[in-house]
Design a protein that fits this description.
seven-stranded antiparallel sheet; 7 helices
């Protein structure tokens, strides 16, 4: 089971929030051990598929990437998703005896991997991933010459990652309400990541009325 430092004030304790983050920020880190027991990391987009028993993450790697062999030999792995994140200045506090920090939203999953190697199954997996990012390309993909498509499919190994445990962390300074108004205003006028954090603060009723 994957674990991370998770104070209770940062734990939303609901699958819906974690699912939203995994869908909204799908570029993940897949982590498992290589043959020497050293962590091996692949950065890749994953598709969350809800199922009746356990949710599954769908993805693939290039065949030369040895990660699929590590998953085949040792199916248990860890997947992490990092949502919006940003620096927080101590200037958001009404006094000077404070320190800066970093706010972020993250999901960690323990998964069990099953390889997807049959061409038709890999084709269905690819169609699902294409649908997440460029649905219009699906028609182009299936219009390509079959020999070319089969060659491309032979160059990847797909997998299903069944989620067996999950932790979600929303670190937004919830335990320091005296910072919320200034913090939300600063983030709202900042970068894309900062604005995303301001939106989450609004949803959680931090620094203003709840918008949900």
């Amino acid at each position: 089971m994957v674990t991370m430092y998770l104070p209770p004030q940062f734990n939303p304790k609901d699958l819906a929030t974690a699912s939203e983050l995994m869908r909204g920020w799908p570029f993940a880190s897949l982590i498992s051990n290589d043959e020497g027991g050293v962590p091996f990391v692949t950065h890749l987009p994953l598709h969350l598929q809800e199922q009746a028993d356990q949710p599954v993450l769908l993805g693939h790697v290039a065949k030369p990437n040895p990660h699929w062999r590590y998953l085949q030999a040792r199916p248990q792995a860890v997947v992490t998703f990092l949502g919006p994140h940003a620096y927080m200045s101590p200037s958001v506090y009404p006094d000077l005896t404070r320190v800066p920090t970093w706010n972020y939203l993250a999901v960690h999953c323990t998964v069990t991997a099953t390889l997807v190697e049959e061409p038709e199954a890999k084709d269905r997996l690819l169609k699902t991933l294409i649908g997440d990012h460029e649905p219009a390309y699906a028609a182009q993909w299936h219009g390509l010459d079959e020999s070319f498509r089969l060659k491309m499919l032979a160059g990847i190994v797909g997998f299903e990652l069944r989620i067996t445990d999950l932790q979600c962390k929303l670190k937004l300074n919830q335990h320091r309400p005296e910072s919320h108004v200034a913090m939300r205003a600063a983030y709202g006028a900042g970068s894309e990541h900062e604005q995303a954090l301001a939106e989450w603060m609004s949803r959680l009723g931090l620094g203003g009325s709840e918008n949900k």
